[in-house]
Amino acid sequence: MLEVLRATFAWAAIATLLVMVPGTLVAYLLARKEFRGKTAVSTLFSLPLVLPPTAVGYLLLRLFAYDGPLGEGTLGLDLDVILSPRAVVIACAVMATPLVVRTARVSFEGVDPRYEEMARTLGHGRAATFFRFTLPLARRGLIAALILGFTRAVGEFGATIILAGNIPGRTQTLATAIFSAQQAGREGEANVLLIIALVAGFVAVYAAEHLSRTHAAAVRR
Amino acid sequence: MTHPVLCVHVTLPLDRFGLDVAFETTHRVTGIFGVSGSGKTTLLETVAGLRRGARGRIALNGDVWLDTEKRVRVPPEGRGIGYVPQDSLLFPHLDVLGNLRAGHGRARRGAGDVDATLDGVVTVLGLQPLLSRAPSTLSGGERQRVALGRALCSGPRLLLLDEPLASLDAALRRKVLPFLRRVRDEFALPMLLVSHDPVEVQALCDDLVVLNEGRIVARGEPRAVLTRPEVFTLGEGEVEGFQNVIPAQVVETRDGVSVVRLGGAAEGPLLTVHRSGLAPGSALLVGIPADEITLALQPPPGLSARNAVPARVERVQQVGASRLVTVRVAAGAPPLVAEVTADALADLHVAPGTGLYLLVKASAVTLYEDGAGAA
Question: ipTM of this complex > 0.90?
Answer without folding.
Answer: no
